[in-house]
Every structure is written in C-alpha cells, then in structure tokens.
Amino acid sequence: MSACPSCGRDPGSNDICPHCGADLKHRIRIRNFGIASIVVAFLGLAVLWLFATHSPIAQVKIRDVESSFNYAYVQIDGIVSRGPSYNADSQSLTFYVRDDTGELMVSAFRSAADELIAADKIPAPGDAVSVQGTLRVREAVPSLNIDSPQALTLQRVTENPPTRDIGSITSADALHGVTLRGMVRSIKVPYTGLKLVTLRDATGSIDVAISSDMESLLGAAPEITVAQSIQVIGSVTLFDTTPQLTLNRGSDMSPLDQAIEIAQSVSIGDLRDSDAGRFVKVSGDVEKVLPFSAGVKVSLIQNNQHVSVLFWQDFWDGLSISSQITSGAQLSVQGEVNTFRGQIEIIPEINQDVALTALAPVNPTVTPTPTPTIEILSKPIGQITDKDVDSIVLTNGSIEKVAEFSLGTRYTLKDNTGSITLLMWSDRIDPAKQRELFQVGVTLSVTGKIDQFNGQLEIVPDSVDQVTVISTPSNPPSASTPVATPEARSTSTPGPTAAPVSSAPPATISQLSQDNAGQTYQVQATVVEVSSFSAGFDFLLDDGTGRIKLTLFNNTYKFVPGRSGLNLGAEVSVAAQVTVFKGALELQPKSGRDVVILKPGSNGSVAVRQVNSLGKPGEIVAVEGTLTDIKDFSAGKNIFVDDGTGNVQVTIFNNVLAYVPVSKLIVGAKVRVVGKTGFFGRMQVVPQLGYDVIIQ
Amino acid sequence: MDTLSLVLIAVLGTILASILALIPALHIYNVVGLMILSAGALSSVLNPDQLAMLLLGMIVGYAMLSTIPSIFLAAPDEAAAFIVLPGQKWLLERRGYEAAILTGVGALCGLVVLIVLSPIAGETSRLLQIILSPHLGWILATIIVFMLMSEWPKSGDRGVSGWARFRAAWTGLGAGILTFLLSGLLGFIIMYRSVVPTEIAFQNLLPAFLGLFAIPMVLVNLIMGTQVPKQHIATSIDITPGLLFRGAAAGSMGGLFAAFFPVVTGGIGGFLAGHATAQRDERSFIVSQGTSKFVYYVGGFLLFFLPGLHLARGGMAAMLSTIYTPSTPELYFTVVAAMAICGVVSFFLLILFSRLAIKLIDRIDYRTVSVVTLILLISLIFITTGLGGLLIAIPATAIGLIPSLFGSRRMNCLGILLIPITLNMAGAGASIAHVLGLI
Which of A308, A487, A607, B27 is such that its CA lies 20 to 30 A from the CA of B272? Predict the structure, then answer.
C-alpha cells in the first residue's frame, strides 16, 4: 500500500485517488520542473548575453539625458572641456566632456582609474573622446562612470600641434592644441595644486597652467627658472575669458638651448603711442630717478629723446642693481610699452629685463642734461581764470557737491574766494579710494591742469597722487598741515604724495589695557585668526606679547590698501583706537589706510581636507572641488562643493560675498574654499573672507 | 501650515501604498518608478518636498502592509524572503491573521526604534560612513561566504547508500550555490549592458527582481496547488513581552544594518540578525522580520533626509535622488514626525486590510489569484521595460524557481546584487565584465 502523493491518503488499487481525484499513474516529478528551470536559466542567460553583447551601445546627446536614464550604459562623443583631476584618496579620475548639446562629468574610480592611468589614457582638454559608461543622474545632473580603458577612445589634441605666436592665441583657440615658445617671465602658485608659468614671446604673453594632478599622473614638468626659454605643447583653455595654455603632460614642456628674443630693440625716439602693449627694448642714459608713492620712475634719454621706465615698488626693492641706477648710468631695459597721461613709459617685468650697460661716472664732471620742469602756479580758487587754461595749478578747497557722470565725477571745490569744478576721470582712480577721499566737506589740496568745459573752469588732476586731504569734517586741520600760499610760485616737478604716516605712539599688545581706551596706538603684529561678523571683519593679532582683536567695519575694511593680503600670517602695522567691547580690548582704526600690510598673508597654509572627513565644528579647513549647486538665502549664498568624496555646503554671508567674484560662481566651476566648519543642521564650511573663496 | 500639509500628504501616501500593497507581487518601487517617470507632470501638482513626503508615506505604508500578500497570497518581495516559512506555516495553521498582526507589531517596534534614533542618526551615520567606507568590499564578501556556508543539507539523512545520502544533501546545497552564481551572472549582464531601453534604464532591476522573487512564488503556487484553510481572526496575539523585545531587538539590528549598508537588503539583514541572536522561537522570529523590514525600508529612506549626508540607500532613495535632494535641515524633523504618524495609521490599516484579505481568500480561488497575479506581473514588466524586460525576466524566473524546487534558500537570488557589486568593490568587476564581453 502506498499513500496518494497528492493528499497522502490511501488510494487503494485505484488509478485515480478516490479521496482527492489525483491521477496516480501519469504524474510529473516536481524535481523535473527544477531541472527544467536550470535548463531555462542557462538558455535564458545565454540568449540575454547574446542580445546584450551584440546590441549596439546607445549613443546619446548630453542634453537628452534625463533622470530615467540612470544606470543606462551609453556612449557619448565629444571634446574634453575640463580636467582631468585626480583624487588620490578616493582614487578617482574626473574630467568633463562637452558635445554640441551640453557638458557632463566623466569619472573613473579605483581600478578603472588605475587602468586608465596605466594605459596612458588620461584625456586632456581639447582631446576628442568617445566614452562608454554607466550614466548616473543625481538631482537631474548627469554624470558618466567608465569601467575600463577600453571604454575610452581618444584623439589627442596635442598630436602635431601647430607652432603659434603667443600673441595670436585668442579665446577662439580654446580647446585647440598649440606649441608655444617663449621666455618664462614668472612662476606663481595661486594655490596648492596649481602652478602658473607666464610665458612671453615677442608678440605677447600667456599663462601656462600646470596642475599637480597632471604632474603626479603623467610626470613632472622639468624644473624651470624665470628668464629661461622654453617650449610648451598644450591645450588652450580659458580662465574666465582669458586664454591660457594647459600643460597636459610634463614632457610637453622642454627647455630651449637658444634664448627666445621677446623684445625688439627700438630707439626711444621711435616709440609712439600706438606701440602701447608691445614689448620693446630700449637703451639710454639715466636722466633722473624719481620715487613716487607706488614705485620709482627712471627717465632715460637717448639722442635727446626721453622715455620713462616705471618700476613698481616691490620690483624696485628686489632689483639688485637698483642702487646703481643713478643719473648718468647707462641702462638697457625691455618691457611693455604703456601710455600714461599722454606719456610713453616702459614697464619691465623681471630683473633680467634691466641691464646696466655702464655705471654712472664717479666724477660728476659731465654737465647733466637740463631737467625739464613744469611750472606749477599756486592760487586760491577765486584767482583761477581763463588765462590759466592748460596751466598746472595748485589750489585748496572743500568739496561742496558731487555729480557723477558716465566717465567720472565732478566735484564742486570751494574756498572763501570762489568755486571751481574738480574733475576726476574714473579711469584714473580706484573707485574705492575715490569714495574714501572725496567726501562732501573734505578739504583738499589739488594739483591739476586747468581746463574749460561749457564755459566752466575745471581743475583736472593727473592722478589721485595729486590730491591731498588736508582735513575731514571730523578731523580739522592741524597747525602743521601745509596749506598752499596764494600766489606762491613753485617750479618743482609735481612729486608724489607721501603716504600718510601715523603719529600714534607705538605699543605692544601687552602694554594696552582698558586705561588706554579711546587712545590711538601703533601696533605691529601678525594675523593669527580671521573671522567675520555682519558689519565687518575681525582679525586676531599676535605680536608675541599678547593678542588683541582688530575690528574692521565694512566701510573701513574696503579701504585697506592691498586688503587681499590681510589674511592668516600677514604682518601688519595698525594705527588704531583702543576700544572696549563686551569687556575685551579691540583695535578700531578710523580708516582703512591706517592698516598697513607689511607682509601679506594667505590661507595657503590651511590643509585641504576631504569632504567626507569633515566632522568636527570649529575647525579651519580648506576644501577643493567642483561647484555643484548655488542657492540664495536671505543673508547670502549657499554653494555646494563636491570633491569626489562628498558634497559640502559652503555658506557665504553677504559681507564676505561682497569680495567674491560672484560672476564666476557657476555650477561646474572648480573652487577652493577656506573656512570654519560648523554644524547648522548639516556640516557647513563658512569662509570668513572673500579671499577665502578662490574660483578657478 | 506648510509642515502640516507635508504630513497630510505623507498620510495620503500611506493610504495609497496600503491599497497598492494588497495587489500581489506589486512592489512599491514599481509604482514609484512610474511616478518618477512622470515627475514632470506631477510637478504641477506637487512641489519636490511634497513629492518626497508622498513617497515617504508610501514606503511606510508598504513596509507595514506588504506583509498581507507575503502571508496570505504568498508573493513576497526580496526583503520578506525569510518570512515566508513561518508566515506560511501559520497561514496553514489558520493563524495567518495573527502572523500579520505580529509582523505589524514588529514594524511598530521598528518605528519606535527609528524615532528614538532620529536625533543622533546624523552624527552616527556620518561617523559610521567614515569608518565603514574603506571596508565595504571585504564585509560584503564575508556576508556572501556566510550566506553560502550557513546553508545546511536538509535531506542528507535519507538514502540507501552513502553516495545517495551525499547526493541528496548536496542537491539542495548545490542548487543554492548554482542559484547564487547564476543570479550573479544575470546581475553582471544587466548592470553592465542591460537590454532594457536606455530611456527607462533606472528600472533595470525591476524585471530581474520580479523574475527572481515574485513570479517563481506564483508559479510554485500554481504547480503545488496550495490550499489555504479558513483563517481565524484572533483577538489577542501569542507573544510575551520578553519575546517581543528579543524579536524587535534582533529585527532592529538586521534592519539598521541593511538600511545603512549598501546592497544588503532587508532579507539579508534579517538573516544575519537572526543568526546573530540565535532565534528559535517562531513568534519572535516573525516580530523580528516585521521590525527588520520596516527599519530597512523606512530607515533607509530616512537616511536620505539626514542633513548634510543625504545617503541614497534603497531603491526609493536611489530613484528620488535622481530628481531631488532635501534642501533644509528642518525637513528631516518633519519627515520623522510624518513617519511616526504614517506608521501608526498604517498599523491600523494593516488590521483592517488583513481582515479584508481573509475574506477575499475565502471567496476567491487561490489558483485564480495566482493566475491573475502572474498576468499582472508579466504585464507590468512588459509595459514598464518592454521586450528587453521580458528577456531579463525569463532567466530570472528560471533562476528564482531553482531554490523553490530544490529546497534551498531563495535569498541566494540576491547574488544578482552581491556578486557584481562586491567584485566591483574589490576592483575585479570591470575585468570580469570585460571577460564576459560586456564592456
């Protein structure tokens, strides 16, 4: 007796189970279904594999990619528009591809990145690529992940690139390969990871961008020095709208045996206004050496023709032969031709541009060439008449009214004898400095050319150097303030206005106490911490004896000369009033110019951190990555930076934002942000200064 | 008012998902996939935050009510792979209703765990991610090894000779390993060169998962001709506080592990937690699976809203992340509040719909339900992913049938994710795909 396989009861001798009706003779074993399943599984997989491997890979345009394309395996053909960048920690290689419809980020991770590197398949800007991979769409932004070197085919843009003059490179050449030859003019490191080499030939100059990512992946560029002649093969890329050359591999830069001539020798007398922008070489005798507020002007004479050579102060300070450039010495100078106030000047760039061909005679028996002089008439405003048109006049007066127009500003300058229009062309003065100096009620000493417009007399200073503030409404003139004497005549060449020198007594920080509140002292110290608040910025100063906060309100901070250098590590000299705020001592200068940066600082020393390692609030960190999103909020902007390991919100408050080039804040831009970490619902990085946000 | 409207939308989502969960084998991800596809059209009705809240409500409802088809209609999804045996056993013992409620109680425990953890979830997840990220590859490999090695021979004690007993023992084990390897191969094909149309590629896994899990269960029901006895509606549940706590604790562990860890599903999480806590009692086992599934589905989605982290874990977050990222930290707390309300609402819906399901299976023939379900599943695959989807579903179904017909674990079908992703993390995925001619 056996049980019914269907119901388990005794069917007796029946072929059909009397209990459940199951057919007991014609049955299929369940295991047979299992075997059939295995067969179907193998066959099905084989058919699926055949279809998968033999069907063409979908070729898509970037614009057509939608969120539903997530995980699709596709092919995109285009041009490499940015990158590559390599993150060693996450082992990711990233670059951007552009087709005629849009741009998308392409990444390879871990073994795929390693294989691409090993196969020498790292694309460079301008390379034509065909890339196959898996689409990833996050928040409607697509990217492509490639899995193997076989998924990438590329045509190098730097294969047989044409040799071009630097001056011929324009933005239209972007993403084209070129060979350039020239002389290295400067080597700068704007931030860790990027080196900029300025290259010049006889037609112009261009920056060569060398990324440390490229060097670590494809070999370092050879060591080069300023004034060395080199050849560079690379892709033209744009920094903002300015063309630059991106070096794609270290070996594409090579030193040249022969020096590249970057300047044509010309006679001083042949120089014309139309030469502005050209790089030329001139020789002549030093006629005069005239220091001015921002540097030194050296007048060269050749065959009774004069030209000024302009040395900026930092250049002059670093020029080893500067002490030998004296009247009578012979000088050979190459530099860019510039015109300023109708005068041609030569501006050398590097020490090697200046050569002393003969020292000034020790025995001054040679009769010096007569110095041309300009007569300056010193007059009260009421005595300036039509006859003075085209003369140079020195006068004093107070600003009564301000009227801006498209090219500048007209101020009504008045003294007790009359009034005259003081005309400042906007291209001759820094707007910030103009706002600081030219305020209603301020008394000025102005040296300028007298002009007439619509019957109205105007005094037009050449530059802001010819304007001196005698007094402000809140700071009346002291007895020692020089005031022009009416009708006094001067025959001196107009000299530079001296930078204001503080008369505040020096003090160390430890010497300052609450007893000094309200008094003004001169403190020299180093910036050790920066922070911002809604109305300005705080800088913690340390002079070795103690620490004190330097508070710069917005209207003071914006007038700090060279304020980009007012950052961590900067050495500053501050003339400021000691104040007490919430029980703590602070220094509050009255003017931005009371803060003198002796040695600029920077945030370059702040270590770059991976986004996914940010976890502790209150740390000063640097993050580098791609800007993925920008959102406005009531007090500023939130930008989101992705470095491949994560995405972090960067909160830029309005007072900081005022110093950030907002036009460059675009999704996809490479940014470096230094800031303080904070946790406000999510991890954020909060830059404290506008200069803490660097956009490539 | 804005927060209130978001919560109300979430509750609507829960009600919608609760109804959809009654349709056998229809996974909520299939519905959400269609919603994401029509997100453009939906944008005129719902703003992105509202859409996210609707999906939150739906996943809460699904996590709670998908128990009903799992128990009464035997069409579980991959996260419920471990619940089938005790659940169906109770069904055959007329205790299906009690099993459903017990699972729901487990889910409620999971809800409490998520609420309690929500204030510290951000920092903890961030820390865990930093610690675990470099180790994902070998942890996944260990899970695979454990899954395969912990399978035991179920019929090795029968047979007239040693060889017969050896063969009987290894038939099930071999079938498990074969299932794992074949599903891994299927995973490679669809992850690297799917035949699903590009425009719908984000639904790559839909035909494979329906084929591996849903269709085989329906087919087995048809083959076996399961008869469901009349169910008893219990007014109390057979569990002690100690067993409840033990089951909820184990389920929370498994669910949290699965929610946080990429690729690991609720089924695997429950399986690991079950082993870790050595559960033998069926009651605590059922509770733990309810907790695990709820924490896996809802907790995983909650990670997406964590301020500053936005981890896309699980299918729901993966789909939503293609069009949306939460913008404000406040939203996270709204999400937690909505989750709590939706969880409670869905529990009461579970009680209601379980009674309804019992009435339905009393009146409708089980085979009829299976046939209708099969037609529905095939239609869904074809409508969503076309012929390419059917091409994937056929071998997937055959692979999914192997464990059912040879008595091995259906969880081995998760080789579809585990093998390719583990090998990718080990850096070998692309090489194997290349050998297979896929790239």
Answer: B27
